[in-house]
């Protein structure tokens, strides 16, 4: 051994000279004896140098990057090149410092650079740093392309596109600081598991289409969509599109045709393979090839050389998917074939339209559990060049849709705390990487305002079967609505007998009835400000909303002019406004202090407005739903939010608290749907009750559980924990007929349900997992 002080770099170079892994291991065991940190750093360099590098399969899968006249051609950058540019660090386990970033280890390398995992000491979060390979840093064209990648990706704000935090191009080696995602690439997933099932394919494909739609709205064409550039976040496998190194702006006149083909032949469009002008439809062809690979387990075009692959891309039609995988339905085969049409005009018109189609299919699969070609038509038609319509499903998310569309409200949307602020802490996770493409997988300590969902305690493997602890009898006809007071001391019940009763939740003794409605009491809600009770009726009453003093069990006033049938009512979180609606298709916003000066929003539903819900905790948003679709409104301006991106797959929405999302239910299909907010992406949908039986959905005070009730006389408790299966926690059996209403107590320890079976209210003591955390 030399007397020269040992460094990770010198040992790394010495280890490379050992011929076999065993010789290398023996050498390092002796050289690093007693210094575990040194050995770890050397191993990190070796892993980055040798692999496993599933993304690095040139020349068959990837051609050169941009044609740069002065681009050196010295091959893949070595990790040790980058380390020479790092400043020394005094912290154990660090490879060195880069500005205010503590570099922890090398997590990947590619043709243009090296990806490092680092700790941002200013913002206290783990990030990924992509550095341009030092031997390319002297190339002006290479540096321009590198910075162009950062700007292109940074221009797209969407949860399915990797976030760019900053770019530094003034130093000797430019670098990009990016979001880190704990996960793996789609290519790694396919290499490990082969073809994916239909649900996985739709879920991943839908998110890719969403991310592409956001990029295309910015006039950006990615030009290198492939499994290696699709990151899947651990646990939920949320998609992140990465590596915008080949991206082009439609109006970038400085980037002309060069006679040099760039991209990845296996997933390249014919027009890109012919070095012709490409637009967003080129990405759609690549998306079709990615969907093909997910269904078949391999790319659609394969050959022994890049040129042979390009020839097949331009001239041949890939083998039909159903010949490879008979489990693929005909409509999916047709959808992929349309995306892979040689003529761009014959493909779908936009990524947003593809997202719509995939979202519909996914929602149906999640609701039914199976697809039948007989009951589901082939891929939805669209005219060439047609833009996405207002029927696009969850196409870009709430913030993304406003920002990317250039709506002036977007800045106000973010700056005014319009969206509820979450209360859950954001967790940091571990880091890995997507090496060859220079994209990142790794840890993220989210620096965003998007609220996190509190993790629920483990739900039981099988639902607990509960019997009612109390059965309350006082009504002379069926129950329509139940509601707990904010302090949990009173339960109100309203029924078809036109009466309201107030129940002491300790002794379960009733007070009332509260009389005055001309028809059945259809909905109830307590004011969070003063505890007054609001009620509405489906009859043409002399007022829109009646108010009641709970302490005295007496009438406390009315709101709004009468003459309309009302089906729903909800107080704003500050108690200043009451929202209601019904058969008039209008949303009424009533000022509690002014009484008879209602603000109305017409045509909020296609038929009957069955549900209205204020967001919590600030009430800056109202959700409506009924026979038509779910819609979102700004109650201060009466303007609809997200008019071009309707939330679909469920109706009759209710907000989860603290910005945790939105839940909706669909009577005809017995389906519950959850959407993430503010992204607007559908999180999950499932069949909760038989079709045309579901009657109501209630949300627990902390948003961790949902209660659904139905015509079959069964109530169910569901966990909203973000897992693959939103499991049923408890089954509540005791009703013998239709159950219409349900409400959680403020502490989450009880559920009240009311039905038509024997005109009773039933009280259920819920398992400890449902109780609100203190």
Would you kindly provide a written description of the structure presented here, covering whatever features stand out?
The chain is 21% helix and 28% strand. The chain is of the alpha+beta class and 774 residues long. The chain folds into 2 domains: 184-436, Transferase(Phosphotransferase) domain 1 (Transferase(Phosphotransferase), domain 1), CATH 1.10.510.10; 464-769, YVTN repeat-like/Quinoprotein amine dehydrogenase (Methylamine Dehydrogenase, Chain H), CATH 2.130.10. The strands form 11 sheets. The protein has a 6-stranded antiparallel β-sheet with strand order 1-2-3-4-6-5. Strands 14-39-38-37-36 form a 5-stranded mixed β-sheet, with no helix packed on it. Strands 15-42-41-40 form a 4-stranded antiparallel β-sheet, with no helix packed on it. A hairpin with a 6-residue loop joins strand 20 and strand 21. Helix 1 (8-16) crosses helix 3, helix 7 (198-217) packs antiparallel against helix 9 (280-296) and helix 9 packs antiparallel against helix 12. The longest helix has 20 residues, at 198-217.
Give the uncertain stretches in residue-range form. Answer: 51-78, 250-260, 370-459
How many domains? The number is 2
Note the quaternary state here. single chain
Structural class: alpha+beta
Strands in their spatial order, largest beta sheet: 1-2-3-4-6-5
The number of helical elements comes to 15
Distance between the terminal alpha carbons, to the nearest Å?
61 Å
Estimate the global geometry from the Cα principal axes.
elongated
Number of strands: 42
Helix content range of the residues, please?
10-25%
Largest sheet: 6 strands, antiparallel
Assigned CATH architecture of the largest domain: 7 Propeller
Average pLDDT: 77
Per CATH, the superfamily of the largest domain is YVTN repeat-like/Quinoprotein amine dehydrogenase
Cα Rg: 30 Å
């Amino acid at each position: 051994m030399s007397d020269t002080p040992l460094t990770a770099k010198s040992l790394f170079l010495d280890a490379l000279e050992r011929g076999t892994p065993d010789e290398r291991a023996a050498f390092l065991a002796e050289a690093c004896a007693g210094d575990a940190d040194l050995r770890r750093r050397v191993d990190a360099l070796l892993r980055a140098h040798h692999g496993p590098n599933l993304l690095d399969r040139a020349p068959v899968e990837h051609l050169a990057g941009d044609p740069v006249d002065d681009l050196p051609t010295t091959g893949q950058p070595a990790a040790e090149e980058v380390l020479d540019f790092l400043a020394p660090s005094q912290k154990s386990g660090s490879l060195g410092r880069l500005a205010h970033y503590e570099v922890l280890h090398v997590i990947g390398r590619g043709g243009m650079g090296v990806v490092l995992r680092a700790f941002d000491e200013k913002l206290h979060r783990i990030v990924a740093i992509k550095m341009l390979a030092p031997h390319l840093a002297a190339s002006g064209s290479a540096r321009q392309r590198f910075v162009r990648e950062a700007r292109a990706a940074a221009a797209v704000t969407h949860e399915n596109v990797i976030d760019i935090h900053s770019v530094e191009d003034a130093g000797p080696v430019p670098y990009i600081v990016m979001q880190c995602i704990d996960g793996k690439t789609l290519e790694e997933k396919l290499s490990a598991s082969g073809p994916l099932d239909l649900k996985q394919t739709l879920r991943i494909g839908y998110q890719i289409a969403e991310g592409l739609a956001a990029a295309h709205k910015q006039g950006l064409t990615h030009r290198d969509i492939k499994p290696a550039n699709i990151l899947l976040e651990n646990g939920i496998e949320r998609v992140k599109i990465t590596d915008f190194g080949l991206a082009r702006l439609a109006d970038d006149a400085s980037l002309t045709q060069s006679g040099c083909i760039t991209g990845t032949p296996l997933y390249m469009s014919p027009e890109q393979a012919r070095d012709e002008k490409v637009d967003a439809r080129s990405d759609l062809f690549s998306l079709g090839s990615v969907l093909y690979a997910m269904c078949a387990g391999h790319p659609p075009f394969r050959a022994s050389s890049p040129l042979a692959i390009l020839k097949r891309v331009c001239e041949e039609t890939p083998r039909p998917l159903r010949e490879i995988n008979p489990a693929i339905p005909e409509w999916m085969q047709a959808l992929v074939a349309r995306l892979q049409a040689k003529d761009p005009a014959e493909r779908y018109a936009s990524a947003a339209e593809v997202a719509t189609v995939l979202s519909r299919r996914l929602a149906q699969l999640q609701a039914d559990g199976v697809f039948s070609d007989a009951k589901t038509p082939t891929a939805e038609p669209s005219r060439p060049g047609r833009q996405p319509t207002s029927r696009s499903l969850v196409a870009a998310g709430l913030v993304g849709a406003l920002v990317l569309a250039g709506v002036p409200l977007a800045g106000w949307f973010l700056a005014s705390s319009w969206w509820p602020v979450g209360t859950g802490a954001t967790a940091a996770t571990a880091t890995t990487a997507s090496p060859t493409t220079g994209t990142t997988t790794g840890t993220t300590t989210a620096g965003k305002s998007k609220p996190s969902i509190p993790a629920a305690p483990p739900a039981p493997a099988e639902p607990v079967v509960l019997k009612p602890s109390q059965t309350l009898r006082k009504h002379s006809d069926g129950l329509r609505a139940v509601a707990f007071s904010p302090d949990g001391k009173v339960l109100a019940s309203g029924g078809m007998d036109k009466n309201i009763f107030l129940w002491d939740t300790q002794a379960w003794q009733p007070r009332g009835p509260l009389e005055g409605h001309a028809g059945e009491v259809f909905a109830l809600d307590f004011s969070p400000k003063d505890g007054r009770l609001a009620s509405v009726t489906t009859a043409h009453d002399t007022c829109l909303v009646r108010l009641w003093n709970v302490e005295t069990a007496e009438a406390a006033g009315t709101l709004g002019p009468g003459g309309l049938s009302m089906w729903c009512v909800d107080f704003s979180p500050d108690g200043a406004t009451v929202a209601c609606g019904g058969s008039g298709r209008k949303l009424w916003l009533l000022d509690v202090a002014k009484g008879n000066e209602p603000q109305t929003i017409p045509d909020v539903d296609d038929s009957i407005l069955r549900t209205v819900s204020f967001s919590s905790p600030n009430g800056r948003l109202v959700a409506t739903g009924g026979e038509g679709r779910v819609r979102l409104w700004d109650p201060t301006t009466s303007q609809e939010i997200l008019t071009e991106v309707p939330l679909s797959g469920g109706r009759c929405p209710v907000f989860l608290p603290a910005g945790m999302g939105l839940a909706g239910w669909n009577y005809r299909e017995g389906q519950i749907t959850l959407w993430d907010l503010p992204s607007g992406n559908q999180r999950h949908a499932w069949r909760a009750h038989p079709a045309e039986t579901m009657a109501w959905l209630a949300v627990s005070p902390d948003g961790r559980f949902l209660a659904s009730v139905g015509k079959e006389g069964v109530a169910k408790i569901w966990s909203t924990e973000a897992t693959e299966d939103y499991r049923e926690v408890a089954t509540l059996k005791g009703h013998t007929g239709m159950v219409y209403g349900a409400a959680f107590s403020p502490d989450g320890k009880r559920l009240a349900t009311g039905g038509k079976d024997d005109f009773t209210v039933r009280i259920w003591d819920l398992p400890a997992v449902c109780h609100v955390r203190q």
